[in-house]
Every structure is written in structure tokens, then in C-alpha cells.
Design the sequence.
């Protein structure tokens, strides 16, 4: 499904909005016969300018509001992720405030069109239009903070990946700095994921795709890179970790859990084991969702480090994949497993 925030386009600032509306207004021309008295011409011209300006503003604002999806109507994954990324109450309140100025603008229009009906000279018409534009400007300028806020959160929401609910989705999870992104980059189409030697490099969910050649056709699988998660109570997890938890909870068909058996990641193996157990207990839907165990950084791991982890997890060699994400060693074995599973 396409990210529902995909059409949350650029939100103009108040000065951009006013600029467009007033320019359009001043370019507009009222339909009036050439021979009409000068006062009628002035009335029509200024009325038209006010109408065009207000109409342009109302349409632009409605357009902004319309392109923000109604949070309660979107699928849980997008709804909950949006709640992690932005303050939804503030978003709703901001949209409400913008919506609230629409009747005010309509009222100004009515008021000034009435006044224009009673002018006695073209100069008076010009003054009235200027006064109307002044009031419109002050109303729109007061919304600048709200417009800026919307534009600000829009980037975060638009970056949410579009998930295809009809194809399987593998979620790659584990402690920070263990090589999750390196694996996703190596085996998927997503070559843009960032890899760094420090933890919490990945700060948001990123989707890649894998095309696996089956006997009869090609199967497309999604693979989700997630931020690292620490072993700590959910209430203490930050919004970066919570995105990974959400992916595990709501979109995973299979979990690829990555361990770093060495001290290279900066985290102990025991805390990684605790996280593994927590995820196994809470996010495998009582075994319905399989967890594949990967010991990464094979090149750095000593046999005693590997043995320790194997013993602690009660795993045999055939229960795990020992990989090197830098060279791709043994990642083909994971692909073979996926081929058997999905093709
Ligand atoms: N030697 C070695 N280094 C690796 C291997 N896999 C990843 N690395 C390195 O480990 C560091 C972390 O790799 P990432 O792929 O960014 O790890 P991550 O789990 O995505 O990290 P976060 O996004 O911070 O949670 C980088 O410096 C990688 O180059 C491996 O198999 N061997
Ligand atoms: Mg990463």
C-alpha cells in the first residue's frame, strides 16, 4: 500500500500563500462593459480582486488539509508509526486551526463586497481593497507557525516506506551496530541504507526488495531494515527503537535476528541474548512467525565467541547462519532458505 502521507506535499509559508493570492487577484479582470460608468467599473474591479484573493487562499488551505490523511482511517502500521514520529494531537489541532480561518475569510469577503457596493469614488474602492488585503494578510500571517509546523513534520511522514501487504516482509532486527543495514544493503535492492561504525546509524525504517528466482516464476520479497533496539523496558525505549518494535509487531512475516558475537558492536552478547528472547516471546505470535538467527561479523569472531553464543541459545550449527556482511559470505545461504520457503 502506498504510504498514505505520500501526497502530503510542500506546505507554503504565509508569505508564499499571500503572494500567490494577491498576484492572482491583481491580474484578474472583472467583466464589465466598456461604456459602464467609472464607479461601476471600480466596484466590479475591486470586488473581483477580493473574491479572487480569498478564493485562492481558501482553495490552497483546503488543499493542504485534504492532503493530510485522516489518521484514524489509515492502517495501523502507518497510524502507529505516525504517532511515534509526530505529535498527532498537535497535528490535528493545527489542521483544526487552519480550517478555522476559512469562515473568517468568507466573512471578510462578504463584508467588503457589501462596503464596495456603497462607494462613491474609485479611490474609495481602492482603499477598501487595500484594507481588505491588510486584514487577510494579518489572518494568514498568524497561521505561519502552523504552516511551518506542517511543512516540518511532512518530511518525516513522507519518508515512511510504502509496504505491499500482498508480498512477504522480512524484518531485520537486533542490537545497534551489529550489521543489520550491511546485510540489507548486500542482499536487497536498497543500496541507500547508511552504514557507519557507530550505533544508532539507522534512525528510521527503510525498505528493500529481493527478487528470488523460483522454478516457475520470480518471487518478490520485502526486507525491512530497522534501527537497533536495546534490551530495556518498553517505557524507556526511544522513538528510534520504537519504530523497530512496531515493524516487528505489525509487518513481519519472518524475523532475521542479527547477533554480533564479538565486542565490535560495543554491546555485550548477554544483552543481545536478552533482546532476542524478548522478541521471540513477544513478536513471533506464538511461533507463527519464524525467527532466523544470524551470527554476523564472522571475520572478527573467534570460535570461543561463537561457541559461547551457540551454547547460550542452545543452537546447533544448522540452526544459524554465520555471515560476513562485508564480503557477503554465507548470505547466499539465507537467500537459499528464503527460496525454499517462499518459492
Ligand atoms: N568486520 C565486519 N564488520 C562488519 C560486518 N557487518 C557490518 N560490519 C561493520 O559494522 C558496523 C555497523 O554496521 P551497520 O550495518 O551500520 O550496523 P547496524 O546494525 O545497521 O547499525 P545501527 O543502524 O546503528 O543499528 C559498520 O562499520 C560495518 O562496516 C561484518 O560482517 N564484518
Ligand atoms: Mg543500520
Sequence:
Amino acid at each position: 500500500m502506498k504510504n498514505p502521507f505520500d501526497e502530503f506535499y510542500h506546505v507554503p509559508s504565509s508569505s508564499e500563500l499571500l503572494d500567490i493570492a494577491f498576484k492572482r487577484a491583481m491580474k484578474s479582470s472583472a467583466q464589465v462593459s466598456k461604456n459602464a460608468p467609472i464607479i461601476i467599473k471600480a466596484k466590479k474591479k475591486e470586488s473581483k480582486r477580493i473574491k479572487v484573493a480569498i478564493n485562492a487562499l481558501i482553495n490552497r488551505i483546503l488543499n493542504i488539509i485534504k492532503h493530510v490523511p485522516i489518521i484514524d482511517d489509515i492502517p495501523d502500521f502507518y497510524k502507529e508509526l505516525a504517532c511515534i514520529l509526530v505529535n498527532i494531537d498537535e497535528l490535528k489541532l493545527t489542521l483544526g486551526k487552519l480550517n478555522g480561518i476559512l469562515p473568517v475569510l468568507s466573512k471578510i469577503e462578504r463584508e467588503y463586497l457589501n462596503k464596495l457596493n456603497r462607494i462613491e469614488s474609485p479611490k474609495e474602492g481602492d482603499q477598501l481593497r487595500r484594507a481588505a488585503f491588510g486584514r487577510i494578510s494579518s489572518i494568514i500571517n498568524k497561521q505561519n507557525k502552523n504552516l511551518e509546523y506542517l511543512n516540518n513534520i511532512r518530511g518525516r511522514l513522507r519518508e515512511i516506506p510504502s509496504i505491499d501487504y500482498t508480498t512477504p516482509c522480512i524484518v531485520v532486527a537486533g542490537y545497534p551496530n551489529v550489521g543489520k543495514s550491511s546485510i540489507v544493503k548486500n542482499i536487497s535492492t536498497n543500496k541507500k541504507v547508511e552504514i557507519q561504525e557507530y550505533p544508532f546509524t539507522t534512525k528510521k525504517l527503510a525498505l528493500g526488495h529481493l527478487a528470488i528466482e523460483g522454478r516457475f516464476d520470480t518471487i518478490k520479497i520485502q526486507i525491512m531494515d530497522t534501527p537497533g533496539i536495546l534490551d530495556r523496558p518498553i517505557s524507556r525505549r526511544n522513538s528510534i527503537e520504537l519504530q523497530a518494535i512496531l515493524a516487528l509487531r505489525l509487518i513481519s512475516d519472518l524475523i532475521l535476528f542479527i547477533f554480533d558475537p564479538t565486542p565490535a558492536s560495543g554491546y555485550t552478547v548477554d544483552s543481545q541474548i536478552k533482546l532476542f528472547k524478548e522478541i521471540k516471546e513477544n513478536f513471533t505470535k506464538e511461533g507463527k512467525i519464524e525467527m532466523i538467527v544470524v551470527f554476523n561479523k564472522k571475520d572478527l569472531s573467534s570460535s570461543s565467541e561463537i561457541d559461547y553464543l551457540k551454547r547460550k541459545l542452545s543452537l546447533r550449527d544448522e540452526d544459524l547462519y554465520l555471515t560476513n556482511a562485508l564480503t557477503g559470505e554465507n548470505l547466499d545461504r539465507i537467500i537459499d532458505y528464503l527460496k525454499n520457503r517462499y518459492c
About this structure: Residues 47 and 315 are 80 Å apart (CA to CA). The chain has a mean pLDDT of 96. The chain has two domains: 14-158, 169-342.
